[in-house]
Amino acid sequence: MPKSQIDQIDRKILTRLQKDGRIANNDLAEAVGLSPSPCLRRVKALEESGLIRTYVALVDPAMVELPVNVFVSVTLEKQVEERLDSFEAAIRQRPEVLECYLMTGEADYLLRVVVPDLAAYEQFLKTHLTRIAGVASIKSSFALKQVRYETALPLHHLAV
């Protein structure tokens, strides 16, 4: 579904579902000003178009003993397609890497890694990250406190 086809009701549906993906269709319909059948059709269309990729449960990291967030800047020896692909394939295999971005600037990649403690991060660093071919440097920054964390995308710029 192209951006131009997203109207105000679709935006309301997306905004509400980002806050509560388990909302009952009847409650969603009421919240966005539709009857249940048209609301369900719109949700299905948003899912089929790929605009809604999936539904998830957000787990509290501290409750599952993963309180340490590490932001890792990685620089490769060479920025050639083969090295980039190899690095990305290796990172996709690591469950402790929640996010990985190819960057502009000093570092080639920025990772967000979650681990239970510093020893676990050291183990990840020594046995996995430093062993990826082509890695030239690694700089780690430890988050002291999470000030803001959102998963909902701001949609106010879409259809009025």
TrEMBL record:
- GO process terms (BP): regulation of DNA-templated transcription; response to amino acid
Q: Which InterPro entries match?
A: ArsR-like_HTH, AsnC-type_HTH_dom, Dimeric_a/b-barrel, Tscrpt_reg_AsnC-like, Tscrpt_reg_AsnC/Lrp_C, Tscrpt_reg_HTH_AsnC-type_CS, WH-like_DNA-bd_sf, WH_DNA-bd_sf
Q: Where is the HTH asnC-type domain?
A: 6-67
Pfam families the UniProt entry points to: AsnC_trans_reg, HTH_24
GO CC terms: cytosol
Q: Which SMART domains match?
A: HTH_ASNC (SM00344)
Task: Report the PANTHER family cross-referenced here.
Answer: LEUCINE-RESPONSIVE REGULATORY PROTEIN, TRANSCRIPTIONAL REGULATOR AZLB
Entry protein name:
AsnC family transcriptional regulator
